[in-house]
Amino acid sequence: MTDADEPTPAPESAVETDPTDATRSAPAPAPTHGVGPWPGEWPDDPRYDPELLAEGDRRNVVDDYRYWTMEAIVADLDAKRHPFHVAIENWQHDLNIGSIVRSANAFLAAEVHIIGKRRWNRRGAMVTDRYQHVRHHEDVETFTAWARGSGLPVIAIDNVEGSVPVNRAELPEACVLLFGQEGPGLSPEALAAASAVVEITQYGSTRSINAASAAAVVMYEWCRRWA
């Protein structure tokens, strides 16, 4: 089965029409994103989804993965994922988590770890959570135990006293980048569990930037050095 990424349009009966307006009764234009049905003979390759080949692929995926099944895409990503992980505290149901998952997919993180509340708002992920491994930890203690057992240093991202600007900080090739919530930032327990604390240099008047934006900046910096 396919995993459509685009919202389903409202049925015709739910749309107000004006019989005096000819443009209202005209058929809706075909979507301009994605690709239509596969032209010509279908490829003999198990990675391709027959339903997508027949109907077209409107998903939010790069062109190299057009018409592939979700399972085939995940398997291909798994073969080349980067060795950094991303972790986010989720004590207050942070709305940034979906966007962070989406960025983790874009920068090919090994896995995303959500600490605290299990539920999170998936809207910002734009369905990328189907292609990105996400693991839950009940609290900082269980997350820290996992990181220690996996031999991964935890690099906290927060603009607290003693933090090192990201352009001068050490970002190990294999590590966990740990982000806090919008507003309160990282908890004292999370900061204590980190082997280093990194901040993003800012040049304006605001004290902090959006948590999802901060995560994207640091993931990009990791990729700039190691990818």
TrEMBL record:
Matching SUPFAM superfamilies: alpha/beta knot
A GO BP annotation: methylation
GO molecular function: RNA binding; RNA methyltransferase activity
Record Pfam families: SpoU_methylase
Residue numbers spanned by region Disordered: 1-51
Domain of life according to the entry: Bacteria
Residues annotated as domain tRNA/rRNA methyltransferase SpoU type: 84-220
Keywords on record: Methyltransferase, Transferase
UniProt name for this protein: rRNA methylase
Lineage: Bacteria, Bacillati, Actinomycetota, Actinomycetes, Micrococcales
